[in-house]
Task: inverse folding
């Protein structure tokens, strides 16, 4: 049983950042703007958050530092996403190019600023955010061990973001307007919705979530931040597509990817998997093969927002 | 307005070019061209740079480091060109990735001396090895450093060990082999029975901190592994993160990594700083060991454990000195035959059960 608990806990470390970042990407793409810059935004969010932790750790107690760092990561993510929004909404530029530019810009600026401030590229931090056991809930049999031991508040934040995202997208006027801008902006405009500001909102939300996701990704992974998130921003894009731009499916996709990643990297320490003669490459391939298969079968009725990637020009209505 | 901007831009460009040229005004006698990473990577570049700076500040010699723009032979050669233009008489290049660039540069700049750390100059397809009179290659006995780490861990009471390497390059493989050899040797001294020692063995294939490396280490700790020898740059940081979560231990590599995490009980060190310092000293004394490959090993204090910052429970300085003397005296044969893929199966074991994880 303890192996199952262990596996679930490890899966969380992979899945939660993927979930948060993919949900971020969802807001941007449902508003009609492709956001390939998720990787770069994650780096900037993680950078700002870790830098804050590095400076204020010790001066403030553990969990409040993390919460403020998450807010700072969100703000940094929004600032990073702003040029992307400006280029692709106001300037009507190719959205892939400004996204790629941010991906190239982010690690460089993270290294540059870190070296100016600290003279060292790596920013160390002490992981004092892990919760050994949540009071009361952690003692519940089975469930307590599955979800409330060896965890982070970011895990619950991830689920909260999921619920809020679903509500916002499907149960509020804002969500309806956002989705309409991604499907048929001309029609949305004709009923008085400001397409530009809705798209700005979408990209800004994606910036905030990707920034948070970057910080959530780094904390359990290392003891310092070295200007990289190891390609997980691109993986989140795959999760987004695999999840067909829908919150519920994105959740499943994120956990599928996370579970496969966790199994692939930890099977050697798990007794019953160790003895099955399946090479680790199989587990490593599984999420990507699954993505290809799903895309191959669903591409004809793909759920991609119809106006995604097309700059909206009010004049050509 | 547009004309003004164009003019301004032109002036700026000329000024920036002038400032580049201005660098030649100040001569820097000692130069270092960095490998991947920077001079504060807490690893290779830093160790070599510290040795260079130590000599430079003691003798008041001008010095500077140069960072190539990317990882390629051409970019490294450009870095070397820059250092030569900057007036370097001695250029230190840390890392085996400089083997090919130095092979070319040693003939291109016969008046400049090169110190290549962790490698020997050879051409791109490994068919010709040649070290000119103005170059010296430095190798370390990583297997002996790994041996000391494995020996100390088992002597200190650890029975379930792990080895997480980066890419299976020769230096990493030698660390791993030595680690097994050392654990085995200590097991023999302690009179352990066959199967008493358990060693898990894995190469991540990269040198970055990833959640995969973290999960792998976490699963090993969960499975009973007590200490992991993390041997691959930032991979070590992921192993440390897992160790902090599991309350387990880590052995660091290359330099003393005790400052990076409280979980680091000791580090298998190369004497980077000392070796760079000693060769630069030789150069200024007029006895540059050009054309040779120097091996820094236990015999000349080229490898070791940082006993002052180590957190051992029972392994003492005298235990360390005793085994070090045996290594230095050549009583313990070195593992120098490497498997092509770095498989640990070629290391003879009797007590340990080595599980290689693909």
Result:
């Amino acid at each position: 049983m303890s192996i199952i608990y262990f596996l679930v806990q490890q899966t969380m470390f992979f899945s939660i950042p993927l979930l948060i970042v993919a949900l971020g990407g969802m807001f941007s793409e449902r508003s009609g703007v492709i956001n390939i810059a998720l990787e770069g935004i994650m780096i900037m969010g993680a950078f700002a958050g870790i830098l804050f932790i590095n400076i204020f750790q010790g001066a403030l107690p553990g969990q409040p530092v993390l919460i403020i760092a998450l807010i700072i990561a969100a703000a940094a993510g929004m600032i990073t996403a702003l040029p992307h929004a400006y280029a692709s909404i106001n300037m009507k530029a190719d959205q892939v190019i400004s996204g790629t530019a941010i991906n190239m810009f982010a690690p460089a600026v993270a290294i540059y600023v870190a070296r100016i401030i600290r003279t060292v590229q790596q920013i160390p931090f002490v992981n004092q955010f892990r919760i050994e056991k949540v009071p009361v809930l952690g003692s519940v049999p089975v469930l307590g061990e599955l979800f409330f031991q060896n965890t982070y508040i970011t895990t619950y934040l991830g689920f909260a973001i999921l619920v809020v995202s679903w509500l916002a997208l499907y149960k509020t006027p804002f969500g309806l307007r956002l989705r309409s801008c991604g499907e048929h902006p001309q029609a949305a405009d004709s009923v008085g919705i400001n397409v530009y500001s809705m798209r700005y909102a979408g990209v800004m939300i994606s910036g905030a979530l990707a920034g948070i996701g970057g910080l959530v990704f780094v904390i359990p992974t290392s003891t310092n931040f070295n200007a990289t998130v190891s390609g997980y921003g691109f993986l989140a894009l795959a999760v987004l597509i695999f999840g067909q731009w829908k919150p519920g499916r994105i959740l499943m996709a994120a956990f599928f990817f996370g579970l496969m990643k966790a199994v692939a990297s930890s099977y050697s320490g798990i007794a019953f998997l160790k003895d099955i003669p399946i090479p680790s490459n199989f587990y490593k391939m599984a999420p990507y093969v699954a993505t290809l298969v799903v895309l191959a079968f669903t591409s004809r009725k793909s759920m991609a927002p119809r106006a995604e990637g097309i700059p909206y020009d009010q004049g050509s209505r | 307005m547009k004309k003004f901007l164009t003019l301004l831009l032109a002036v700026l460009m000329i000024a920036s070019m002038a400032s580049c040229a201005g660098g030649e005004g100040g001569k820097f006698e000692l130069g270092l061209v960095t490998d991947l990473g920077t001079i504060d990577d807490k690893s290779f570049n830093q160790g070599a740079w510290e040795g260079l700076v130590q000599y430079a500040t003691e003798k008041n010699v001008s010095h500077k480091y140069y960072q190539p723009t990317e990882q390629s032979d051409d970019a490294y050669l450009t870095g070397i060109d820059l250092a030569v233009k900057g007036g370097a008489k001695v250029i230190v290049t840390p890392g085996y990735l400089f083997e090919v660039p130095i092979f070319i540069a040693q003939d291109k700049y016969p008046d400049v001396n090169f110190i290549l750390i962790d490698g020997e100059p050879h051409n791109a397809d490994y068919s010709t090895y040649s070290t000119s009179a103005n170059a010296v290659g430095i190798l370390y006995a990583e297997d002996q450093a790994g041996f000391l780490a494995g020996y100390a861990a088992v002597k200190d009471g650890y029975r379930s060990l792990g080895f997480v390497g980066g890419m299976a390059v020769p230096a990493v493989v030698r660390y791993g082999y030595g680690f097994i050899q050392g654990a085995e040797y200590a097991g023999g001294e302690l009179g352990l029975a066959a199967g008493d020692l358990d060693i898990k063995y894995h190469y991540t294939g990269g040198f970055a901190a990833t959640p995969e490396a973290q999960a792998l280490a976490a699963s090993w700790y969960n499975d009973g592994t007590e200490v992991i020898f993390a041997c691959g740059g930032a991979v070590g940081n992921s192993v440390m993160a897992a160790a902090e979560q599991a309350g387990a231990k880590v052995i660091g590599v290359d330099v003393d990594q005790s400052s990076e995490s409280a979980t680091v009980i000791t580090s298998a060190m190369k004497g980077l700083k000392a070796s760079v310092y000693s060769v630069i000293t030789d150069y200024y004394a007029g006895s540059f060991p050009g054309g040779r490959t120097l091996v820094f090993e236990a015999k000349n204090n080229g490898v070791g454990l940082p006993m002052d910052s180590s957190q051992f429970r029972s392994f003492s300085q005298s235990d360390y000195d005793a085994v070090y003397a045996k290594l230095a005296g050549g009583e313990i044969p070195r593992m120098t035959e490497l498997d092509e893929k770095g498989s640990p199966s070629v290391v003879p074991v009797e007590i340990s059960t080595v599980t290689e994880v693909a």
Remarks:
- The longest strand of chain A covers residues 131-133.
- Chain A has one domain: 2-303.
- The CA atoms of residues 131 and 151 of chain A lie 5 Å apart.
